[in-house]
Amino acid sequence: MTALRKTKIALTPKTAPFAIRAERASDVVAREALLDACFGDNRHMRSCQRLRDGRAPAEGLSLSAVREGRLVGTVRLWHVSAGGIPALMLGPLAVEASSRQLGLGAALMDHALAAAKARGHRAVILLGDAPYYARFGFSAARTGELSLPGAFERERLLGLEFCDGALDGAWGMITATGAPLPKTKAVRGRKAKALLMPRVA
């Protein structure tokens, strides 16, 4: 089991503090604009998006980062079955370019993982850059027999166990298990100029 890392944020006169809180309905337009800017117009075609389409995020595990009254970061976790083993899928994680030097991405990760562990979840999976996410305890050690719908890079499929052995025997296709969303049109925000760093699909 990997201990959660605590993020230290150093504030200088040139940096403004940020707050991480539960996502609100009023965040949706800004969140969609941030995701469009970070991932591009084709983000809805990504493999992990197929696990999110038509599903609600896991309860209490949608977080927003706010700086100077505006949304500058977002992360969500989703219920999935990892070859029959209950787990969470983390993503997308997005941070506005002007805020990434504040350590906001790491703070969002720490908050999200701590909240997931506190709610009794046993494992989290994501598709992301291994060198970055290793600092949070993610590795490919338990995900080698798992697959995603559609094309993906094997070395970027990573897992984190809150409990030793939580992903033992995980094999096969990762599938969505979250509650279905009501059939409504998705709210789309206007595009913003932002960059994602680090990137998680």
From TrEMBL:
UniProt xrefs under InterPro entries: Acyl_CoA_acyltransferase, GNAT_dom
UniProt KW keywords: Transferase
Span of domain N-acetyltransferase: 18-159
GO MF annotation list: acyltransferase activity, transferring groups other than amino-acyl groups
Source taxon at top rank: Bacteria
CDD domains: NAT_SF
Keyword Transferase attributed: yes
PROSITE patterns documented for this protein: GNAT (PS51186)
Protein name as annotated: GCN5 family acetyltransferase
Organism: Bradyrhizobium lablabi
